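Weekly modeling sync, notes
Attendees: S.R. (lead), two postdocs, one rotation student

Agenda item 3: backlog of single-chain predictions. S.R. asked that every request posted to the team notebook include the full sequence so nobody has to chase files. The rotation student volunteered to paste the first one in as an example of the format we agreed on. Action items at the bottom.

Example entry:
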Amino acid sequence: MLRRWWKPVWRTELFTVILCEPRETFASGWGHQHLPLDRRLPDDLIAESFGDPWCGVLALAHDPRIDDMGLLAALQSPAFYVGAMGSKQTSESRRERLASLGLDEAALRRLRAPIGINLPSKTPAEIAISVVADLIEARHHLRTTHEQCSLPLGR
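Predicted structure, as returned to the notebook:
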């Protein structure tokens, strides 16, 4: 459902978007020629292609087997934005799992989760808009300060 609301973002020149989907079930029948689909595991894609501070990584799979390893790689990269979809409870569990994999508190503070600006809504359209607003804010912060954004835990 959320995918439908991302289409306007994919088609703008605000960001270059690559969808990473290694799972056959979700990748089969991908019909969006304007949005590249990469079938590698997220941690491999991030390690090989996201090595500069102008990259952002959004984990949207809702599957810890997919999201956590990608987030681990992203939080060890210079990416200006690292965010993950999920509730506050899911985000706290994710932080605990990532800490158990060796991430320190400074790296965990970089994780923007729940993803997006703080809105009290759960509709797909508003979630997509809040994520894009958060990305734009973080990119503007990078442009003006040349520093990555990090937030206090439990923002």
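Discussion: group reviewed the output briefly. The mean pLDDT is 85.
Action items: rotation student to repeat for the remaining queue; S.R. to check formatting next week.
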